[in-house]
Amino acid sequence: MLASFLQIVGQNTRYCVIRNTFGRLQFATSENFHKILKALNSLAPDLMVRPGSTMPAKIRESTRFYPYFKDCIGAIDGTHIPASVKGRDVSSYRDRHGNISQNVLAACNFDLEFMYVLSGWEGSAHDSKVLSDALARKNGLKVLQALHNFLRKECRSDEFPVKLTDESSSSSSVLPNYEDNDHEPIVQTQEQEREDANIWRTNIGSDM
């Protein structure tokens, strides 16, 4: 539901295309679009802060970025940084490309200055695990509880294709010692992936 809404407003995608992409009827697509729009309108007065007069010069003075990114304050992404690991922990730090690395989450502003960095996760850790850890930390990233609860209520039946990968997580962000048989299965089924995602979102909501 949310994914189709974002594709419509972000890429000006027509309902007929959304219908084929997500396997929904055109009427249901329109109905879901207005549900999300109504929810965002109800959240806006209390949870969305209007941007101030200060705008990064690189955006204000560039026709490439302004006005499309006038409300952005930065960007967040994950990256893999090479790591030196020895012993039985090597397999945990092997990413999907076969390299030994850490999965690092970082946020920076438009002056390329880092505002937030979370390091220490193994290269095999899934991005959702790293993001979950960032959200759970005392001074970590924040999400809107009202929006989270709305998604749990309205989007419960949405099922999106899950790509099987060899990424899995078997620890927290602290670099722990593993026992030989403590690793989780590397490949999960779609049902397991959806169940893990539901537990992850529930934990985020309960911690807020």
What does the secondary structure layout of this molecule look like, with pairings?
Layout: H1 2-11, H2 15-22, H3 26-47, H4 57-60, E1 75-82, E2 101-108, E3 114-122, H5 127-136, H6 145-154, H7 190-207
Antiparallel strand pairs: 1-2, 2-3
Helix pairs in contact: 1-3, 5-7, 6-7
Subcellular location: Nucleus
Region (Disordered): 163-194
Protein name: DDE Tnp4 domain-containing protein
Largest sheet: number of strands, sense, barrel closure: 3 strands, antiparallel
The arrangement of helices and strands along the chain is HHHHEEEHHH
Strand tally is 3
- Roughly how many Å is the radius of gyration? 20 Å
Shape: globular
- Number of helical segments with 4 or more residues: 7
**What average pLDDT do the residues reach?**
73
Unreliable stretches covering 5 or more consecutive residues:
156-165, 167-187
* Strand line-up in the sheet with most strands: 1-2-3
Percent in helix: 25-40%
How many angstroms does the end-to-end distance come to? 24 Å
Class from helix and strand fractions: alpha+beta
Beta-strand percent range: 5-15%
List keywords for this structure.
208 residues; alpha+beta; 3-stranded antiparallel beta sheet; 7 helices; 3 strands; 12% strand; globular
What does this structure look like?
The chain is of the alpha+beta class. It has a domain at 73-207. Helices cover 39% and strands 12% of the residues. The protein contains seven helices and three strands; from the N terminus they run H-H-H-H-E-E-E-H-H-H. It has a three-stranded antiparallel beta sheet, covered by helices on one side. A hairpin with a 5-residue loop joins strand 2 (101-108) and strand 3 (114-122). Helix 1 (2-11) crosses helix 3. The protein starts with a helix and ends with a helix. Residues 156-165 and 167-187 have low confidence and may be disordered. Residues 76-134 form the DDE Tnp4 domain. Its main location: nucleus.
